[in-house]
Amino acid sequence: MSLRQQAEALVHIDEPNVRVTEYQFQPGAETGWHRHMADYVVVPLLDGDLLLEEPGGVARMARLKRHAPYARREGVEHNVVNANAYPFSFIEIEHLKEGLDVKSMLDRFVAAWNAHDLERIMACMTDDCVFWSSAGAHPEGGVFEGREAVAEAFATIFQNFPDAAWIECRITLFGSRALWEWTFIGTGTNGTKTTVLGADILELVESRIRRKNSFRKTMTG
Ligand code: NI
User: Fold this and answer.
1) Which of 26, 55, 62, 166 shows the smallest number of beta carbons within 10 Å?
2) Model-level pTM greater than 0.70?
3) Residues 169, 109: Cα–Cα separation, whole Å
4) pLDDT in tens, 186-209
5) How far, in Å, from the CA of 60 to the mean position of ligand 1?
6) How far is CA 175 from CA 85, 99, 202, in A?
7) Right CATH number for 8-95 from 3.40.600.10, 3.30.1330.60, 3.60.15.10, 2.60.120.10?
């Protein structure tokens, strides 16, 4: 297997909802495998042929026409190779949908909880973050304000349940809030196994979590 040279990606515009990138390929150079997370438009800067490698071992040639744009939807997965004997380039314009950054942040957040990775959890929280835990001395439950207090409260959960896991997770976004439904399973330090359904209302500010408001069931049987 020959290693191909990598195409060069020059980002011309990087705004919250649009990114414009110019790809420059030497002959035989490739973008590398990537999955498009957003709808996009390609504007070829030259006439030329691209080899498109697609999932399932598919490879096909695409003929591009200088300045003739084409549009594709998010989800496209491929590796793009310059099949010409000369350097080739095109401009890619991505429509970064609102919520895309938030969704990937929430995916990282849930993964970090299951990895017991406090640093990665806190990377998703704002500087002025607040945690309202399910049980505590206040109408809000336990109240923890500021990064230090919140991180300490999160760490306590991992201390109390060294095997804590949040499974059957479902995340729903609505405006500036997200609902994270989960089933918590964990073994307490005294050996007692807990399985409980619960949810968090996550208040979002600029793709980070300002408040984690936790709710869980109480078994009385
Ligand atoms: Ni692509």
Assistant:
1) 55
2) no
3) 12
4) 999 999 999 999 999 999 998 899
5) 14
6) 49, 9, 11
7) 2.60.120.10
